[in-house]
Amino acid sequence: MVANRLKILDKVFLRGPSFSQMLYEVTSSLPENIQLTLLDFQETGKVFIKGYADDIGSVFSAIEVLNDSELFSGMKIKYASQVKRKGRVRIEFYIQGKRRL
What is the mean pLDDT of residues 20-37? Predict the structure, then answer.
């Protein structure tokens, strides 16, 4: 079972940027006030990012940087809402896009 999943990962990431490249690109483009709760790279090329930010402007800034990168395209907010988390108001967001193959 695990061996099959590793074979799938090899196929997916040999066609495009490595997981570590994509992880670095995402984390280095995020403003410091963003916390990630989900980072999902699908075999189909879809990318899902979920997390919390202090303000919506930080989310838009991250999307702009990701779309300007060589690794991602079509990144956009699918969901954003104010939520109270740990005693303070934050923006919960969900971003979807594609990785460039």
Answer: 88
Tokens of 50: 């979920």
Question: Any idea of the CA torsion for 77, 32, 52, 61, to the nearest 10 degrees?
Answer: -20
**Considering Cα of 42, then 24, then 93, then 72, what sign does the dihedral take?**
negative
List, as own/partner pairs, every contact residues 54-61 make where C-beta atoms lie below 8 angstroms and the sequence separation is at least 24, other chains included: 54/90, 54/91, 55/91, 56/80, 56/91, 56/93, 58/31, 58/33, 58/34, 58/91, 59/34, 59/91, 59/93, 59/95, 61/31
Q: Read off the pTM.
A: 0.79
Distance separating alpha carbons of residues 92 and 21, to the nearest angstrom? 25
What is residue 31's DSSP assignment? -
Extents of the domains making up the chain: 2-99
Domain 2-99 fold is Gyrase A; domain 2 (3.30.1360)
